[in-house]
Amino acid sequence: MAKDNLDIKEFHWLMDMLQTIDVGLIVLDKNFKVQVWNSFMENHSGIPPLSVKDKVLFDVFGDIPKEWFTQKAESVFLLKSRAFITWELRPYLFKFKNYRPITGTEEFMYQNVSISPLVSVDGSVSSICVIIYDVTDIASNKKALEKANVELESLSRTDRLTMLNNRGYWEECLQNEYSRLQRYDTTSSLVMFDIDHFKKVNDTYGHQAGDEVIRVVSKLLRDSLRKTDIAGRYGGEEFGIILGHTSSENAFIYCERLRKAIEDTTVVHDGIEIKFTISLGICEASKKLEDYKQWLEKTDQALYQCKESGRNKTMIYDLSTL
Ligand SMILES: Nc1nc2c(ncn2[C@@H]2O[C@H](COP(=O)(O)OP(=O)(O)OP(=O)(O)O)[C@@H](O)[C@H]2O)c(=O)[nH]1
């Protein structure tokens, strides 16, 4: 008798604990009918235990993907081993609102879920226990960290003045493009261009005006690009463009369009109108080039020829001289 009293007492304690623990606890039978529904579940769903008792889970929560959850649960019934669902795999099983003060920006509660078999004395599994862990804090922190890393990576690749790729990252892209061209039977053209007499712009109108000219050129450049083109700021007033799948003839058409657009532009800084031009060199990729550095060098040579022969023009490197 004393033993029985103890058992009942322990049972009450267990029930108390079950109600007060800060995780969701649900017991489902083989037909997915709810047998146990603790306070956590009641508080977050607003549905009291009596309203869900003996109801099929999917009838009460229509947005739980039935087929997917059934498959998970069936394996627990069959193999008598636990199954886990992480928030990374599926953010939640029950769409509960998130009320946490620190992670208040999250719209819903992220959940980790474990499904355990409840084995009877005869060894059979006729019910499963689903435990819902609120992992909103963890998920929110991880997502914030991932976002910060993406932003950091983008910052480390971007030139602050022009918002173009910086030299380091652009050269990496050029190297990749060169390697890609070794493998595939296609071509690309490299363009290097430079603002003419830029030193004079700085000396005449000041460094701020010079910066504004660089910014305007970069915007015109960005607006002229296709999705597959990659532009970068190579140096002070020197820029590089990788034109994917483009012959030197087509690159020439592109360059002349950009050159004319810049020639037709006027930058107004502190009420003063500033006009400027650019010179562009082109070199089409070729098997004759030893590496990406030589590709760059030859393109620069074409740009240098423009500078030598009067500026404000586009020239193509003659690959037959290689
Ligand atoms: N305002 C500004 N000037 C820069 C920046 N980076 C480099 N420069 C200036 O750009 C000028 C480049 O001058 P040079 O290399 O002599 O070339 P250039 O005057 O354009 O002459 P050509 O290229 O031969 O037509 C130098 O005066 C640099 O100080 C920058 O970010 N902002």
From TrEMBL:
Molecular function terms, GO-annotated: diguanylate cyclase activity
Reaction equation(s) it catalyzes: 2 GTP = 3',3'-c-di-GMP + 2 diphosphate
CDD domains to which the protein is assigned, alphabetical: GGDEF
Presence of keyword Ribosomal protein: no
Domain of life: Bacteria
EC number(s) from the headed UniProt entry: 2.7.7.65
InterPro entries in the record: Diguanylate_Cyclase, GGDEF_dom, Nucleotide_cyclase, PAS-like_dom_sf, Rev_trsase/Diguanyl_cyclase
Family matches, as Pfam families: GGDEF (PF00990)
Residue ranges constituting the GGDEF domain according to the UniProt record: 186-319
Enzyme's top EC category: transferase
UniProt KW keywords: Nucleotidyltransferase, Transferase
Record-given protein name: diguanylate cyclase
